[in-house]
């Protein structure tokens, strides 16, 4: 795969991840899942003012974005963080950071050459 295509795919995928993260409730749910132990909807609802239905809707958004996955255990679904999604976000932010570092380096060179 070419770098340009890879960068484009990374940007497109990252957009859906950032959109899913654009809600405080979903950020809270992800924080609860960072321990590495899959958790039920009931466990994720504990300590919140949210209904199970509201938590389920937020988990669906996160699952559609690939940030969590679920597995049936008996009569309930258990949700777990999908670490690859976090790695994808980090890769995108590293790409953006590299572009900015390059642009700032060019600006510095231009400014320094104008001072000479």
Automatic annotation (TrEMBL):
<feature type="domain" description="HTH arsR-type">
    <location>
        <begin position="6"/>
        <end position="104"/>
    </location>
</feature>
<dbReference type="InterPro" id="IPR011991">
    <property type="entry name" value="ArsR-like_HTH"/>
</dbReference>
<dbReference type="InterPro" id="IPR001845">
    <property type="entry name" value="HTH_ArsR_DNA-bd_dom"/>
</dbReference>
<dbReference type="GO" id="GO:0003700">
    <property type="term" value="F:DNA-binding transcription factor activity"/>
</dbReference>
<dbReference type="InterPro" id="IPR036388">
    <property type="entry name" value="WH-like_DNA-bd_sf"/>
</dbReference>
<protein>
    <submittedName>
        <fullName>HTH-type transcriptional regulator</fullName>
    </submittedName>
</protein>
<dbReference type="Pfam" id="PF12840">
    <property type="entry name" value="HTH_20"/>
</dbReference>
<dbReference type="InterPro" id="IPR036390">
    <property type="entry name" value="WH_DNA-bd_sf"/>
</dbReference>
């Amino acid at each position: 795969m070419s770098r340009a295509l890879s960068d484009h795919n990374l940007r497109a995928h990252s957009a859906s991840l950032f959109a899913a993260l654009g809600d405080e409730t979903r950020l809270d749910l992800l924080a609860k899942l960072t321990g590495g132990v899959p958790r039920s909807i009931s466990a994720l609802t504990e300590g919140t003012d949210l209904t199970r239905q509201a938590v389920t809707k937020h988990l669906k958004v996160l699952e559609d974005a690939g940030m969590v996955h679920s597995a049936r255990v008996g009569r309930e679904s258990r949700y777990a963080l999908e670490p690859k999604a976090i790695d994808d976000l980090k890769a995108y932010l590293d790409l953006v950071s590299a572009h900015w570092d390059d642009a700032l380096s060019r600006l510095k060179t231009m400014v320094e050459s104008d001072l000479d």
